[in-house]
From TrEMBL:
<dbReference type="InterPro" id="IPR002207">
    <property type="entry name" value="Peroxidase_I"/>
</dbReference>
<keyword id="KW-0479">Metal-binding</keyword>
<dbReference type="InterPro" id="IPR044831">
    <property type="entry name" value="Ccp1-like"/>
</dbReference>
<dbReference type="GO" id="GO:0046872">
    <property type="term" value="F:metal ion binding"/>
</dbReference>
<comment type="similarity">
    <text>Belongs to the peroxidase family.</text>
</comment>
<dbReference type="GO" id="GO:0020037">
    <property type="term" value="F:heme binding"/>
</dbReference>
<feature type="region of interest" description="Disordered">
    <location>
        <begin position="14"/>
        <end position="45"/>
    </location>
</feature>
<keyword id="KW-0560">Oxidoreductase</keyword>
<keyword id="KW-0408">Iron</keyword>
<protein>
    <recommendedName>
        <fullName>Plant heme peroxidase family profile domain-containing protein</fullName>
    </recommendedName>
</protein>
<dbReference type="GO" id="GO:0005759">
    <property type="term" value="C:mitochondrial matrix"/>
</dbReference>
<feature type="domain" description="Plant heme peroxidase family profile">
    <location>
        <begin position="50"/>
        <end position="144"/>
    </location>
</feature>
<dbReference type="GO" id="GO:0034599">
    <property type="term" value="P:cellular response to oxidative stress"/>
</dbReference>
<keyword id="KW-0575">Peroxidase</keyword>
<dbReference type="InterPro" id="IPR002016">
    <property type="entry name" value="Haem_peroxidase"/>
</dbReference>
<dbReference type="GO" id="GO:0042744">
    <property type="term" value="P:hydrogen peroxide catabolic process"/>
</dbReference>
<keyword id="KW-0349">Heme</keyword>
Amino acid sequence: MQYLNNNNKKISIQRYNTSSTYSKEDRTGGSNGSTMRFEKENKDPQNQGLEYARNFLETIKNRYPGISYSDLWILASYVAIEEARGPKIEFVPGRKDAYWQNKCPPNGRLPDLNKDSKHLREVFYRMGFSDKEIVALIAGGHQFPIDLELKKDPELRKYSILYKEDQLQFQNDFAQAFKKLTELGFKVF
């Protein structure tokens, strides 16, 4: 990840994954609920390896039981990005936790970053993102084979070039897109 080192990367990936389950069609998934705590979502193959982040944040939750898991996980991702010299993102509290596993969104909603730009658009359009926001989120958060898709797709490539040439524009767009991502299911856009 461009902004994250190995110590805080998994915290933001965890938050990215939980938020990326949102569907604007039925308004399920997203950052509200922190359902990754439950076995159903925790066992999604794309959530494997995030135990460190959950365990680390559990120690903080134990010290501050008044904060919801949902707010804690979002706040932690914002702090991790900022500590890694990324943009500052304004935190808005108020997310509620789910208390039952039946609130988990269906598995398979996360973007598969080994697939093509068509798949990427299907997943991100389901959440309500534009091509520009897709590139900002991918460029700020992943380095996978999907990077090649950003170069192959003419519409996505133009934003990749823009961000390569204008770091300030990239930081601003990344901050806005990441904030939007982490408020899916909490705020309606």
